[in-house]
Amino acid sequence: MSARTPLLLVVALVMSACGLVGYRGAAAPITVPPSASASPSVTAAEPAPETADDLGGPHTGAYVAGCFGADALAAPTGACPRSTRSGRLTPQPAVARRDKSRAYGYISGGKHCFADLPRFPVTTCTFGDPRATTSVALIGNSHAGQWLPAIERIAAKKHWRVTTYLASQCALADVRQGFDTPQISSNCQRWGREVTDRVARGGFDLVILTNKISRGVRGQTLAASTRLFQQGYARVLERLQRAQLRVVGVRDTPSPAIDVPGCLAAHPKNYHACSGTRATWLPPEPLTAAVAGMRDERITMIDMSDYICESTLCSAAVGGVPVYFDVSHLTATYARTLTPYLAYELEAVWSAD
Q: Is the dihedral of CA 39, 41, 43, 338 positive or negative?
């Protein structure tokens, strides 16, 4: 999606019609759960919205409210600065380091939702409406977990029950990834296979799959592993296809490979010192080719990069929000500003059936 200006009205009309985002005063309000904030400090800086109409998005109310976060990139040309050069950030860089999703137990105060090395035991967490009749699975590693703040908001509006199957570092693709020992590599692959099998048997209405590939296939460099990951993804998708599940792959997000909060703190008068090119930050994505190879309308791919980067530039701060809490993961605050745009893409998947 590159032509954002004409798309803005289309998105607003489609999402209003589909009930994902309403204009102010148009929809019956719902309470957004406390999960909308990542920490007390973040809550103080950016109060959690009280109704679904306050979720933000491509409509007049959100635009007038100040082009916060991803709205700055979605706005018509000239309406907002595309990136933030200096000034106050929400949250401040020191707070941004803890601005994470509720999948992290030390953030939520509850269960830790990631399978950790060396054993990678399958770990699940449930979010959203526990009595919902629509069930969604979010699967992958920490780059799947970074989408949880947005998905929780969509779930609150749409009455979804969301089950996460997440791991730390281990990408959910059927390959032996290059960990420190052969046993850890085997455990990671076993985790992926077991999660795939559980999800295939789980009767989910929608499966959302995404990963950061940070390790090559065992014995291969990361650069030489793209084709092997594509094949590993294909094996996962084939299993989910046999279960007749609807699957959405999300293209991995740009990765700065620098400590973004630290860089922003070090350059308070020039946040652009922490920026990079889209070509450099956007990693290869073997999942795209794997999805295309399935030739199945129920297995699709979406790309949210245009709401994170400009056409050639990726900034560390957009719309007054730090985009990353470390070297590659979206802050929960920025992820929440992506809610209406992710909702639009997911609604298009539902509507395609």
A: negative
Q: How far apart are CA 166 and CA 316, in angstroms?
A: 26
Query: Angle at CA 52, nearest 5°, toward 49 and 57?
Result: 85
Token representation of residue 82: 């595309």
Tell me the torsion sign for CA atoms 37, 143, 351, 4: positive
Q: Are 96 and 123 in contact (CB under 8 A)?
A: no
List phi, psi (to 5°) of 136.
-125, 140
Nearest C-alpha neighbor of 314 from the set 250, 249, 268, 260? 260
CB atoms near residue 119 (< 10 Å): 12
246 sits in the region (left: phi over 0; alpha: psi -120 to 50; else beta) called: beta
Tally the C-alpha atoms within 13 A of residue 332's C-alpha that lie toward its C-beta. 30
Residue 260 CA to residue 258 CA, distance in Å, equals 6
Token pair of 331 as six digits: 């802050």
- Gap between the Cα atoms of 176 and 87, Å rounded: 45
Q: Which residue has the tokens 């999300």?
A: 250
Q: Could you tell me the pTM of the whole model?
A: 0.83
287/232 Cα distance (integer angstroms)? 9
Q: Which tens digits make up the pLDDT trace of 211-230?
A: 999 999 999 999 999 999 99
DSSP 52: G
The pair of three-digit structure tokens given for residue 109, joined into one six-digit string: 């105060």
Q: Are 236 and 174 in contact (CB under 8 A)?
A: yes
DSSP lists the bridge partners of residue 80 as none
Structural contact between residues 339 and 57, judged by C-beta atoms closer than 8 angstroms: yes
- The pLDDT tens digits for 249-264 are 999 999 999 999 999 9
* Residues 177, 218 contacting (CB under 8 angstroms): yes
